[in-house]
Amino acid sequence: MTQGRFIAVVGPSGVGKDSLMDALCRARPDLRRVRRAITRAPEAGGEDYEAVSAEAFVRRAKAGAFVLHWQAHGLSYGIPAEIRDDLDAGRDVLANLSRGKLEDAAAAFARVHVLVISADPEVLADRLSARGRETPEDIAARLARTAPPMPQGVRVTQIDNSGALGASVSAALAALYPARV
Ligand SMILES: Nc1ncnc2c1ncn2[C@@H]1O[C@H](COP(=O)(O)OP(=O)(O)O)[C@@H](O)[C@H]1O
Ligand SMILES: O=P(O)(O)OC[C@H]1O[C@H](OP(=O)(O)OP(=O)(O)O)[C@H](O)[C@@H]1O
Fold first, then answer.
1. Which of 19, 35, 65, 120 is 20 to 30 A removed from 86 (C-alpha atoms)?
2. Share of the chain above pLDDT 90, in %
């Protein structure tokens, strides 16, 4: 059985990762979207995540419950180890990942495809303000984050999401599912 692909969606805050992932899952119901564990209040909105306390997160991380985990924006994020079952069964898995964890993802999974999402800086700032989840200080800190270089051995597709989301979705689908001739 060929392993499923670990499809990592990365890029700065507000660039449209979750919007793109929503659309990809609608277009491809066979994709497994990772439900992350996050130490964020349950009512914060946005993606469907499992809200966990900081104490529970540490306990679970120590017990090996996460295949990848990291900290950003004062929060902890974890990807449940159960996704290995999907990958082993040949199913593709879609995850919103920190750019800083790509190296670990490349080491952890046999097949990794990275969708690197970008947008013009002023577009990013406008989208984050309109989303309304973060304070202006939080937004500035998110936009100041930088990314380490891309690891070797992973497939990479760059997508500029400054324009219409539909165009980005089409580009992602074309890269992930090239038409057979
Ligand atoms: N191509 C796009 N055009 C216009 N608005 C977009 C586009 N992509 C995303 N957005 C909006 O920008 C905001 C941030 O998008 P989101 O998907 O939450 O980004 P991320 O997950 O990368 O932080 C949301 O309000 C979303 O509706
Ligand atoms: O190391 P970085 O590549 O900067 O990424 C840091 C974190 O930011 C995003 O989180 P989250 O989904 O909470 O934020 P966002 O919706 O604002 O992107 C991303 O999914 C990572 O968890």
1. 19
2. 81
